[in-house]
Design goal:
The chain is an alpha+beta fold. The protein contains five helices and eleven strands; from the N terminus they run βββαββαββαβββαβα. Helices cover about 20% and strands about 30% of the residues. A hairpin with a 6-residue loop joins strand 2 and strand 3. It is globular, with a radius of gyration of 18 Å.
């Protein structure tokens, strides 16, 4: 992913399984929330997750991968929008940003911005942005994205704060690229906030 602005200051948090020793790009939701809401750093932190849900508009419905992301996603990652405001696209809980391809599937040649999409047969979202063409050299092949605060409604209550579930990807935009300093701060946050009964599984 070498097209991002300030890519030298972008880092993905990797978690090691304390039992197997294997490294994983997904971390516990509890740790992700602490990194996002804690005051120990001046990092710009964004949490991500992806799940497949039914989505429908008019008489069209199908399953689609949907990214959940914090509202600052477009501040950390400089994906361009063909329509909509990058600063405001994910500000409202019922916002959804979709790709040009998905817009055509759901609405044909109509302007998709401002239209409703129902997700998981029960939640309605308003299209606030249309993604421009996404480069092939990125792990984020996004067709749909909604604010991460919806995980508690679409997953289960408290899903964004549990220490046992490791479904969150966490990216930080630091003020510099001092990896040793970043690692040291991460270790401090881990020691201070991870519950003792979880530390044997999360390192």
């Amino acid at each position: 992913d070498n097209f991002y602005r300030d890519q030298h200051r972008l880092f993905r948090i990797i978690q090691r399984d304390g039992q197997t020793g294997l490294h994983d790009g997904f971390v516990s939701w509890g740790l992700a929330k602490q990194l996002r809401e804690g005051t120990e750093t001046d990092w710009n932190v964004v949490r991500l997750s992806k799940w497949k849900y039914w989505m429908a508009a008019s008489d069209v419905s199908f399953k689609e991968d949907i990214f959940f992301a914090d509202e600052n996603f477009f501040d950390v990652f400089n994906f361009p929008l063909a329509k909509g405001s990058r600063e405001k696209a994910l500000q409202l809980k019922n916002s959804i940003v979709i790709s040009k391809d998905l817009a055509r599937k759901l609405f044909g040649n109509e302007d998709a911005v401002g239209k409703n999409i129902r997700v998981n047969t029960k939640m309605d979202f308003i299209v606030t942005g249309i993604l421009d063409e996404i480069p092939a050299n990125t792990i984020f092949q996004i067709n749909a994205m909604i604010p991460l605060q919806n995980v508690n409604d679409l997953f289960y209550s408290g899903a964004d704060s549990g220490w046992h579930d490791t479904g969150a990807s966490v990216f930080i935009k630091a003020q510099n690229n001092d990896e040793n300093h970043i690692t040291s701060l991460l270790n401090q946050i881990y020691e201070q906030h991870v519950p003792e009964n979880n530390k044997e599984n999360l390192t």
